[in-house]
Amino acid sequence: MPLCGFFFTSLLIFSAHFLQTCAGGALGEETPPSPELVQVSSDVYSGVVLRCHAPPGHGGRVFQLYRLRTLADSLQFHTERSHADFQLSTSAADTQEIYCCRYDHSMFSPYTRVHPPPRPTSPPAPPQLSVTPPDGRVRPGQVLEFHCQAPPTLAPVAFVLQKQRWEDEDVQVMSRSANPQFRVGPVDVADGGRYTCFYMLHLSEGDKNSAPSAPVSVNVGVELPAPRLSQGEEGALVCTGSPSYPGAYFSLFEQGSSSPLVTRPAQTIQHSVQFAASGQHGEGGGYQCQYSVLLGKTWAHSELSTPIILPCVTGSPSCSPSSTDNHPPHTGSMDMPLVCGSVSAALLFLMVLIFLAFGIRKYAETAAKKRREREQEQFWQQVHSRDHIVDLTLQRFSTGSKEDGEASEPIYDCPLSTFTRPPDY
User: Fold this and answer.
1) Does a structural domain hold residue 421?
2) Between 54 and which of 58, 186, 238, 330 could a Cys-Cys bridge form, CB atoms 3.0 to 4.6 Å apart?
3) Per its UniProt entry, which superkingdom is the organism in (predicted)?
């Protein structure tokens, strides 16, 4: 019977160990107390969350979750924490098995039975769809990029991109992929419309689709050549579009305005429209035109034409100062009268400067000449003021005999003139 006793003793030790681990029995006084395992959230899409919470004043770095007696999950942290959350899938929650947990080398928590989440009555939350370029306006031949963003707590198994070209048409599936990124293109006019997406979840009862995202509009525009606006007879304005689009709708705009003054269709075989001058536009302002073409069920609009400026008739109401202020003529070309006037004013100003400089120079030369003359005059006055005036008396004396005739010569009592001192030069 020794063999039977050995098996009996091993059975007792094994049972005591599991009673201690999952029933909270203590093996020693130094073993940390058992934590508490509770179910904190339950969602059919994101699953069930179980929280292993240590008693107050205790914590650990390693938390372990056991399904009955099998390790189901383990979380390890760099610092000590008081609790850890374990997330179970929806399929695991449906089994309604019992779980327990522990932290570090603590005792095991009491068993907790998982309650499955309630069945939803509405589809999962819709995703968010975005497109590049953000405004959804592209030209034929370009590529569109879509991104279908699901809620972060969910793990979809697939994403589906769908399109509805017109409101009265059925939704068309464009692509299905496990990647939320979609590329559509190169596009043409038929690729325009409203795009939506949804994601798919794999549940125990099968795959379930989310609600569709908000629609994103895509407009594939056609490049229409810009029209030409000219002035016809009697001041009328003629807007000429592309010959490839006869019967288009033409609109006349005042320059700088986004609202048309008038819109009218061309005849079926024509590609131009004439706008009468009376009652539709005034003189002395700038005007532009545009034409629109219906391609299928989408309107394509051309660019605005080059602006044209109508001449302002003097005396007309449209040529009043208030009208000129409200509608300044922005022709975009050179204003020759203004340029000529500016050049004339500049030349006149330059001539005034030249004459002024010449007059100033002449005045300076005359003043310098007068100053030199005054200095010379003062100098000679000083020189003459130092001369002595001598009275010269002439006397006659005789030479020879009387027979020969008497001749006399004047003599001077003194020299002609003397200076007391030489002049100071």
Assistant:
1) no
2) 58
3) Eukaryota
Q: Domain boundary residue among 113, 143, 176?
A: 113
Pairing of strands 144-149, 181-184: antiparallel
Half-sphere exposure (Cβ direction) of 238: Cα atoms closer than 13 Å: 10
List pLDDT tens digits, range 68-99. 888 989 999 999 999 999 988 766 665 678 89
Phi, psi of 285 (to 5 degrees): -135, 170
* Beta-ladder partners of 64: 74, 102
- Domain membership of residue 278 (yes or no) is yes
**Residue 307 lies inside a defined structural domain of this protein:** yes
CA-to-CA distance for 94 and 91, rounded, in angstroms?
5
In angstroms, the CA 305 to CA 299 distance is 18
Q: Which of 326, 352, 384 is the last residue of a domain?
A: 326
**Number of domains the chain contains:** 3
pLDDT tens by residue, 153-177: 788 889 999 988 766 677 888 889 9
pLDDT at 257: 83
- Distance CA(412)–CA(343), nearest Å, equals 83
Domain of 29, in residue numbers = 12-113
| Cβ–Cβ under 8 Å, residues 146 and 184 | yes
Least confident of 196-210, 270-284, 398-412: 398-412
Q: Taking the model in full, what pTM does it have?
A: 0.38
